[in-house]
Amino acid sequence: QLQAYGGGLVQAGGSLRLSCVTSIFTFSTYTMAWFRQAPGKGREFVAAIRDGTFYADSVKGRFTIARDIVKNTVYLQMNRLKPEDTAVYYCAAGQEDNIVAMRSYTYWGQGTQVTVSS
Known about the structure:
- This protein has no helices and 11 strands.
- It is mainly beta.
């Protein structure tokens, strides 16, 4: 289904790139998204790509979502990371209109931990 990787430990101000590889369905017909869940908090929308790109206000200007249709992979380039970006990051795939809602996504990756130290 979905396999996410690329997380790790980075200092504030640093960068990481997450990748999510899909294996089953027609990749280009799905909205691909990243969500994250910080300790003790609910899962929140981060970014999505469909006919355009969409970002949460908290990451706009720092994160970039992109996809490679040939490789069936979606990326999340994270720059100028902050301690509050620390979370488990999940990739997701769906075909519903409400791209910020978890219920719109059918497939989920296993999550990859991102830790930003101050």
